[in-house]
Write a structure and sequence with these properties.
The complex is a heterodimer.
Chain A lengths: L1 H32 L15 H29 L7 E8 L2 E6 L4 E3 L1 E5 L3 E8 L4 E5 L4 E5 L5 E6 L4 E7 L11 E7 L1 H9 L6 H11 L2 H4 L18 E3 L5 E3 L2 H9 L22 H13 L6 H6 L16
Parallel strand pairs in A: 1-5, 4-10
Antiparallel strand pairs in A: 1-2, 2-3, 5-8, 6-7, 6-9, 9-10, 11-12
Helix pairs in contact in A: 1-2, 4-7, 6-7
Chain B lengths: L1 H6 L19 H5 L4 H29 L10 H36 L8 H23 L13 H5 L4 H28 L12 H33 L12 H35 L6 H14 L15 H29 L8 H24 L1 H7 L3 H31 L5 H28 L15 H31 L54
The chains are: A alpha+beta, B mainly alpha.
C-alpha cells in the first residue's frame, strides 16, 4: 500500500510542481516584461470567457484524476480481506494494548508476520486516539464506544514507528511504539513464547460466567437470539430495518442491548456497560465470531468467500 | 517633483484639515465612537496585541521543537502553549483581522457611504470582541486550556481538567462579534452604495467581504451552539458527545468543522479581495475577468459549506461519506484556481510597479498557490490518510492562513496606510520586511511538508524516539526567527511613520477606488459630497500612473 500511496504522491507532486512553476514563471516574466516604463501605458483588457472556461475545466479534469486515484486507494485501505488475521487493539491514555486472537498480549508493540493480511479491530477506553504507522502510510482514529478497523500487509521485516496521531492529552507525544514485522518462522517462535489461551476461549468462559448462555442458547430457542452463524450476516430488526451483525453491532448489543432489538425478541437484556471491560468485550466479540466459523478446517478452506457475503472480496485483485 | 516635495510638509501657518483622527482627542471620543474608521483602529490595536501574543506562543513552540527531547517546558505546558497559539490566532486574529480592520475602515469608503448601516452595532461588535478577548486572557492567565483549538470531544468534555467552559464562552462571545460585523456589511453593501455604484461596478474587495459576511452570518451560530453543547456536557454531564454518557464524539467533529472549515474562507476571502485591489492598482489595469473573480468569491463561500467532513477522513466516517466529501472538496479548488489565473492574467500588458503592497500581492499568489495545491493533495483521500494530523497539514494551513491571509493583510495595511494614518511608510524598510516575511515564511513552513510526509505527527511535545526529524525542525525554527523579524519591522516603522512619515496626499498611488477621492485621512463622515459613480471599477485607463520611482523613505 505504501508504494501505491507514494506513486500517487509523486504524481501529485509533479502536477503541483508544474502548476507552481507555471504560475511562478508567468508572474515573474509578466512582472518584469511589463514593469512600469516611461512612455508606455497599461493596455486594458476586459477578460475572456473562453479562457475562464478553459482554466476552470482543465484543472477540474486534472483534479478528478486526483480524486479517482485517491478514492481507489482509500477503498482498498478500508476494505480488509475476509480472511485477514484479526488483532484487537485497545488504546488508552497513553498506551496501546494489543491482544492477538491466540491470546498473546503486548503493550506498545505489535508483532506481525511478513506477508500476511492483518486486520486491527480497535477501540479506546477514554478519548480519541489515532493509530498511525507512517511506513505503511496508514492511519485510523480509534474512538471510545465503538470499533474502527484498519488492515495492512507488511512486506518487509523490520521495526516501524507506531504513533498516536490524534491529540489525547499530556503524554500524547509519548504514546507510541513499534510495529515489529517478522519472518513467519520467527513470528511462530515469538507467538509460542507466551502462555495464554486463545481470545475466543476467554470469551467463551465469560459467556458462561456472565450468564449470557442462559438466554442465548444453542440447543433450543432461548429468550435471546441464537448467536450461531449470525456474524457478518444481515439481521432483521423489530422496526423493520436490517443491519449487518458486524463487530460494532455485537459490541453495541452488549453495552446497549435495547438500541437494536432483533425482530421477534423482547427488550429484556440488561446492559453490560461498566460491567465488562474493553478487553473482555473484545473476547466476547471474538467468541461470537467463532460461533460463525466452520467447525472443520477443510470446510473453511473450501469456501471462505461464502461465509462473508458482505465483503467485496473481488476488490483485492485490483 | 515640486508638488511631491510640497506634499511632505504642512505649511506652518495652516492648521490641518479636520479629519476623523483629530476630531476629538479624549479617550471617550475613541471608546464611545460610532465612526467605522475609529472602530477599525480599535480593532487594529486589539488584533495586533493578539497577533504578537499568538506569535510569542509560536516562538515557544518552535524553541521547544529545536531539540528532540522535551527540555524547554513540561508536556502540559507545551500542550497549553500550542492551544493558546491556535485559539488566539484563529479566533482573535485571523477571523477578525481583515474584515474588522480593513473591512471596517474601507467598506463605507469604497461604496461612498458615510458609515456602516448600524454604527452602534459596529461599536458593540468591537466591545464583544474586547470582552471575549479579556475573558480569554483571564482564562489563559489562570491556567489556560490544553485541548488544541479544535476542542475535540470527549477529551474536552471529560478528559481534561482545564478551563474549557471559560475558553468556550470567549469563543461564543467572539462569535457574536463576528456575526454582527457580517450583518452590518451585508446590509451596508445592499443598501448604502453611492448613486451609480451598481453591483458590477463594486470593487472586488467589497465582493470578497460580502461573501465573507454571508459565511459569518450563516456559519458562526453553529460554532456558538457547539461550544454551548460542550459546556453543557461538561457542567451537567448530559450525554451529547461522550460515548461514556451515551453521546457521539463524531457529532462534535461534524458540528465543529461545519463552521470551522468555512471559517478558513472567512479568513482568506477578504485577503483575496485585498490582493485584487493591489494588483489592479500596481498593474494599472482592470482585473482580468472581473465578473469571474467577483463570483468566484461567492462560489467559494457556497462550496465552502459543503466540504467540512474532509477533516474527518480517518475519524471513523463511512467509506462513501469520505468519497463524497473528497469529491466536493475539489469543487472549492476551481474558483480558487480561477482567482489565481485571473490575477496572473491581469499582469499581462500592465504597467507594473514594485511598490511594497505589490510585493505582498506577489507573495500572496506564490504562497496561496502552494497552500492551495497542497490542499488538493489533502482532498485526495489516499494521501490524506497518511498525512492528516501530521506536520504536512500544519504546513498546508499555515501556507493558506499565514502565507495567504497575512500577506494580504500586510499588503493592504501598507496600501491603505496613507489613507488610515495620513502618512507614508518608509518604502525601503517596508520592502526589506516584505522580503524577510516571504523568505522566513518559506523557511519555516516548507520543511514541515517534508516532516509531515516522513510521518511526524502534529501536537508533539517531543520526538526523542525520532531524532531523524531534528534537522528539518531546526530549519523551521531558524525560519521562524527570520519571520519574527519580518513581522516586528512593520510594527516599528509604521509606528515611526505616524510621527515622522511624509504627509500623504489624498491619492498617493493614483488608485481608482472611491476611498481615494477623499482626503487622507478622511473626514469623519468620509465625503464632503456624496460621490456619484459613472464609471466601472478599476478605470485605470482614465487615471495617469504615478511617477516612475516609488516614494523614497523619509
Amino acid at each position: 500500500m505504501a508504494g501505491q500511496v507514494d506513486a500517487l504522491y509523486i504524481y501529485l507532486l509533479l502536477v503541483s510542481g508544474v502548476m507552481t512553476a507555471l504560475i511562478f514563471i508567468a508572474v515573474t516574466v509578466l512582472a518584469i516584461k511589463y514593469r512600469r516604463t516611461a512612455g508606455r501605458d497599461a493596455q486594458q483588457i476586459e477578460g475572456s470567457t473562453f479562457l475562464e472556461i478553459t482554466w476552470s475545466i482543465i484543472p477540474l479534469f486534472v483534479m478528478m484524476t486526483f480524486f479517482v486515484w485517491g478514492a481507489v486507494i482509500y477503498f482498498q485501505e478500508r476494505t480488509p480481506p475476509a480472511d485477514a488475521t484479526e488483532v484487537y487493539v485497545v488504546a488508552k491514555q497513553w498506551m496501546w494494548k494489543i491482544e492477538h486472537i491466540e491470546g498473546q498480549r503486548e503493550i506498545n508493540e505489535l508483532h506481525v508476520p511478513v506477508g500476511q493480511d492483518i486486520k486491527l479491530i480497535m477501540t479506546s477506553q477514554d478519548v480519541i486516539h489515532s493509530f498511525y504507522v507512517p511506513a505503511f502510510r496508514l492511519k485510523q482514529d480509534v474512538l471510545p464506544g465503538r470499533y474502527t478497523t484498519l488492515w495492512f500487509k507488511a512486506t518487509k521485516p523490520g521495526r516501524y514507528h507506531l504513533f498516536c496521531a490524534e491529540y489525547c492529552g499530556t503524554q500524547h507525544s509519548g504514546m507510541g511504539g513499534d510495529i515489529v514485522v517478522m519472518e513467519p518462522q520467527d513470528y511462530a517462535q515469538w507467538m509460542a513464547g507466551g502462555p495464554s489461551a486463545p481470545l475466543q476461549d476467554t470469551g467463551k468462559q465469560l459467556f458462561t460466567s456472565l450468564g449470557c448462555a442462559t438466554c442465548h442458547r444453542f440447543d433450543v430457542q432461548g429468550r435471546g437470539p441464537n448467536l450461531q452463524g449470525i456474524y457478518n450476516k444481515p439481521v432483521l430488526l423489530e422496526d423493520g430495518r436490517t443491519v449487518i451483525a458486524d463487530e460494532n453491532y455485537v459490541r453495541e448489543s452488549i453495552l446497549n442491548p435495547t438500541a437494536k432489538i432483533v425482530n421477534g425478541f423482547k427488550p429484556v437484556m440488561p446492559t453490560f456497560q461498566g460491567i465488562v471491560s474493553d478487553e473482555q468485550l473484545n473476547a466476547l466479540v471474538a467468541y461470537v465470531k467463532s460461533l460463525s466459523q466452520p467447525v472443520t478446517g477443510t470446510a473453511g478452506l473450501q469456501n471462505p468467500p461464502a461465509t462473508s457475503p458482505a465483503q467485496p472480496k473481488n476488490m483485492q485483485v485490483q | 517633483m515640486i508638488s511631491k516635495a510640497a506634499s511632505r510638509v504642512i505649511p506652518a501657518n495652516q492648521a490641518p484639515k479636520l479629519n476623523y483622527l483629530n476630531n476629538g482627542h479624549t479617550l471617550k471620543s475613541w471608546l464611545l465612537t460610532t465612526d467605522h474608521k475609529r472602530i477599525a483602529l480599535l480593532y487594529l490595536i486589539s488584533v495586533t496585541v493578539f497577533f504578537f501574543l499568538g506569535g510569542f506562543f509560536a516562538m515557544l513552540i518552535r524553541l521547544e521543537l529545536l531539540t528532540p527531547e522535551g527540555d524547554l517546558m513540561q508536556a502540559d505546558t507545551y500542550n497549553k502553549v500550542f492551544t493558546m497559539h491556535g485559539m488566539i490566532m484563529v479566533f482573535f486574529f485571523l477571523i477578525p483581522v481583515v474584515p474588522a480592520v480593513l473591512g471596517n475602515f474601507l467598506v463605507p469608503l469604497m461604496i461612498g457611504a458615510k458609515d456602516l448601516a448600524f454604527p452602534r452595532i459596529n461599536l458593540l461588535s468591537w466591545y464583544l470582541y474586547a470582552i471575549a478577548g479579556t475573558l480569554f486572557l483571564h482564562c489563559m492567565l489562570t491556567g489556560g486550556v490544553d485541548t488544541g483549538w479544535t476542542f475535540y470531544t470527549p477529551y474536552s468534555t471529560s478528559g481534561t481538567n482545564t478551563n474549557i467552559v471559560e475558553a468556550g464562552l470567549a469563543v461564543f462571545i467572539a462569535g457574536f462579534s463576528s456575526i454582527f460585523t457580517g450583518l452590518n456589511f451585508i446590509v451596508t453593501i445592499h443598501r448604502m452604495r453611492a448613486p451609480g455604484l451598481t453591483w458590477d461596478r463594486l470593487p472586488l474587495f467589497i465582493w470578497a467581504n460580502y461573501a465573507t459576511s454571508l459565511i459569518m452570518v450563516l456559519g458562526t451560530p453553529v460554532i456558538a451552539i457547539t461550544v454551548v453543547l460542550v459546556a453543557v456536557e461538561r457542567l451537567f454531564h448530559l450525554g451529547i458527545f461522550d460515548p461514556a454518557l451515551g453521546g457521539d464524539p463524531l457529532l462534535f467533529q461534524h458540528l465543529f468543522w461545519f463552521y470551522s472549515h468555512p471559517a478558513v474562507y472567512i479568513m482568506i476571502l477578504p485577503s483575496m479581495g485585498v490582493v485584487s485591489e493591489l494588483i489592479a492598482c500596481f498593474a494599472r489595469k482592470r482585473i482580468f475577468g472581473y465578473k469571474f473573480v467577483a463570483l468566484s468569491s461567492v462560489a467559494i463561500a457556497v462550496f465552502g459549506f459543503l466540504v467540512w467532513a474532509h477533516h474527518m477522513f480517518v475519524a471513523g466516517i463511512s467509506l462513501y461519506a469520505a468519497m463524497i466529501f473528497s469529491f466536493l472538496s475539489f469543487s472549492v479548488g476551481v474558483p480558487s484556481a480561477v482567482k489565481v489565473f485571473n490575477w496572473t492574467a491581469t499582469l499581462y500588458k500592465g504597467s507594473i510597479s514594485y511598490a511594497t503592497p505589490m510585493l505582498y500581492a506577489f507573495g500572496f499568489i506564490g504562497l496561496f498557490t502552494m497552500g492551495g495545491l497542497t490542499g488538493l493533495m489533502l482532498a485526495t483521500i489516499g494521501i490524506d490518510v497518511h498525512v492528516t494530523d501530521t506536520y504536512f497539514v500544519v504546513a498546508h494551513f499555515h501556507y493558506v492562513m499565514v502565507g495567504g491571509v497575512l500577506m494580504g493583510y500586510l499588503g493592504g495595511l501598507h496600501f491603505w496606510w496613507p489613507k488610515i494614518s495620513g502618512r507614508m511608510y518608509p518604502e525601503g524598510w517596508a520592502k526589506l520586511s516584505a522580503l524577510l516575511v516571504f523568505v522566513g515564511f518559506n523557511l519555516t513552513f516548507f520543511p514541515q511538508f517534508i516532516l509531515g510526509y516522513l510521518g511526524m505527527p502534529r501536537r508533539y511535545w517531543e520526538y526523542a524516539r525520532m531524532p531523524e526529524f531534528q534537522v528539518l525542525n531546526v530549519l523551521s525554527t531558524a525560519g521562524a526567527s527570520v519571520l519574527a523579524v519580518g513581522y516586528l519591522l512593520p510594527m516599528i516603522y509604521l509606528l515611526w511613520s505616524l510621527r515622522y512619515g511624509p504627509i500623504a496626499e489624498a491619492n498617493p498611488w493614483n488608485a481608482a477606488g472611491l476611498e481615494w477621492r477623499t482626503t487622507s485621512p478622511p473626514p469623519t463622515f468620509n465625503f464632503d459630497e456624496t460621490p456619484v459613480v459613472t464609471w466601472e471599477a478599476y478605470n485605470y485607463d482614465e487615471i495617469p500612473a504615478k511617477e516612475l520611482e516609488a516614494p523614497v523613505a523619509g
